[in-house]
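chain below, 316 aa
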Amino acid sequence: QAVKKEQFHSPKASLLVNGYHPIHKEFEEVLAQANGFEKGLVVGSGFLANLSLIEALIRKKDILFMDEEYHASGMLATKLIAGEVVLFKHNDVDDLKQKLKSFPKHMRKIIAIEGVYSMSGDLASKEFYWLANEYNALLIVDEAHSSGVIGKNLCGWFDHFDLPILSNHIKMGTLGKAYGSYGAYILASYHIIEFLENRAKAIIYTTAPSLFDIALGLESFKYIQENKVYIKQRIKENLAIIKEVFDLDAHSLIVPIVVDDNTKVIDIQNELIQNGYLLGAIRQPTVKKAIIRLIAKIDIEVLQLKKVALQIKEKL
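prediction:
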């Protein structure tokens, strides 16, 4: 309805030319306020959001510390920067701490993690928050798979651990997951957002996000906030099935079931498709060991989820 009221549907140009619209502004303000950040910024996609953040923020003499399982968009962005890149072991706070100690205190440090990792479903350790504050480092949290899924208010990783938002914290996420649309956002301090608006090439030189997609994402966000009690209960029910069938304590709706055979995961996937179920068959080198990637979405009824889970278990 918000888009129907407008004289045009296309943003026409980049945000900095004449592509910025009140629909974009409302989305930014609502998300920033709900998540406890000073300001928001709409972006064309999660891939572009990671490119924007890393390419623009990391300058010469800066050091970027990135989880070795960070999304491919972030890994690609590291090839575009002049600063040094240091990968640390997946979700390993101690390894990161040792690497932080090995660089002079005066060098600016940036840490990049995911709230929930897209392949493993791992929840990032709360200790990364305190470590970033201790070393006065910028902390980038990719919340593509945690926003709308975890937290008291279903706002993601910061919300899940009830962590105060400070000026060194940056959150980005996509609308293509829990928010059921297309596009992305970055939330941060006024200073960081204004810097990105003037330095991030993937924002400056791309067409502004679709008005329809942003309006849809906003409505989805509002729906989640209005129905969070019901949604959290459904998530709890589905994860109880995962625990019952696989004896896995899933922290999110991403459930990786290790098969460790690239051919076998395809065979399992094809057989499940024939039975009416679509699951991911993720193979090396995307992951270290081949997995069936089950997403325990809440639009899947408990009995259906149990049925497909049992079928997967039979084939392992």
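The mean pLDDT is 94. The longest strand covers residues 109-114.
thats it, cya
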